[in-house]
Multidrug ABC transporter permease/ATP-binding protein
Amino acid sequence: MELLLLVWRQYRWPFISVIALSLLSAALGIGLIAFINLRLITLVDTSLTVLPEFLGLLLLLMAVTLGSQLALTTLGHHFVYRLRGEFIKRILDTQIEKIEKIGSASLLAGLTSDIRNITIAFVRLPELVQGIILTFGSAAYLAWLSGKMMLVTALWLALTIWGGFMLVSRVYKHMASLRESEDKLYHDYQTVLEGRKELTLNRERAEYVFTQLYLPDAREYRHHIVRADTFHLSAVNWSNIMMLGAIGLVFWMANSLGWADTAVAATYSLTLLFLRTPLLSAVGALPTLLSAQVAFNKLNKFSLAPYRAEFPQPQAHPHWQTLELRDITFHYPDNSFAVGPINMTLKRGELVFLIGGNGSGKSTLAMLLTGLYQPLSGQILVDGQPMAADKPEDYRKLFSAVFTDVWLFD
């Protein structure tokens, strides 16, 4: 998965340390089962030291398992902290036209829903890692006990995993559709909140927004979340039933086929019971990782500006004299509106009014003039120099503006 590969590239050595702790935890868990099999079942050790040794192994297993899980979740939270910060910085560095094209609703969904899903995935990731490692470790121990029984059990578990994978793949499909539905819902929320005055005055428009825009999007979201939960719960119950079936299969092979004695069958069953909870937790955690991958892909689809840790330090030009727009043209991405070519010269100290009707291009010209929009052709010259193109941060530092959709900072 691309998300885990990114974590690997950014936190390679901490990630290796976490995996090592997880391997140690799995080894201790299997060692505890071996201790029970050897000392309590096979040898029936009645000495006074066996209980302290058993309790010591339990405490050691708890400490190592807790340590590995805390290390992995801490690593995940550091990654999410870094990802969120980089995403915010990329938004700040992206051109206004691109931000307006994406839409604030989609970006808000990315900052809330997508980041939350990635965070949840890293909270559940230890369960997935533990489940996978314990499955392979337990398989090796079972093969050591009885090769023939292990082969049949492995086929049974392979069928279990395949069935779970088929169900989880459907979960992923609906998770991807669910994320698109969330974008639509956030847009509906934005319409209701930002258009509240207009919708209060025009109740017919309010009814249209609710019945024709919001309700269809809400139903679509409900459909996909119900389907995703259905397949997820089916995968969990499938795994649960198949693990219980594996225990019955083990005793059938031992007693009916004579492949092992009762003690080995009991150890097999104990190991499968030990494996059941981590395996079910892993199956339960997998959809959160799939959802996080969908969220990560969605964040990448925004195509924001590349991440740069530093902020530019624009240079002031307090002594400029003229600002010239030469053959400036601009049109919006959907080609719905265009301005230009514009030729005008502003001199220092002049007071200029932009006058025109609605839709005449006043706001677009102001955005071009302040450097918030980049012209498709032509030049903006400051004292005869193309500062707007060569040094956009320096050029924008020349301006201060109060927009109609003003934001009051704290």
